[in-house]
Amino acid sequence: MNEKQLHALVAEFAKNLKTPEDLNQFSRMLKKITVEAALNGELTDHLGYEKHQPRNGKNARNGYTSKTVICDEGEIEIETPRDRDGTFEPQLIKKNQTRITGMDEQIIALYAKGRVIGLWIAENEGRSSGRMC
């Protein structure tokens, strides 16, 4: 997606934003979609194959677990992917982590620059805290 396409998409969404709560809800939805895509990218990296592709070994995707996390805009419900062996340890939002802060700037930059989720994950590997800034 290039910058022109992104501006057109944002303009279309902006037509429906009438109140501060609408903007807050849109921001939470964007954060949810981005976090879930990043978590799925982490699982793909962990398993070594893309979703709907033949698996490389015994371990496989095994659905999702719902999790409520608190962010700058309030609570969001995310779906964390699971693997059959239970060896997947998400790094973006770790197991038992209930709070994420400081992600707004990165999510906006991610969409604004049209960057690939995998590249963003690669840049943020090894971060030990839940704070992403």
UniProtKB/TrEMBL annotation:
One of its GO terms (molecular function) is transposase activity. GO terms for biological process: DNA transposition. It holds the Pfam family Transposase_mut. Keywords: DNA recombination, DNA-binding, Transposable element, Transposition. It comes from the Bacteria. Belongs to the transposase mutator family. PANTHER family: MUTATOR FAMILY TRANSPOSASE, TRANSPOSASE FOR INSERTION SEQUENCE ELEMENT IS1081. Required for the transposition of the insertion element. This is Mutator family transposase. It comes from [Actinobacillus] rossii. The lineage of its organism: Bacteria, Pseudomonadati, Pseudomonadota, Gammaproteobacteria, Pasteurellales.
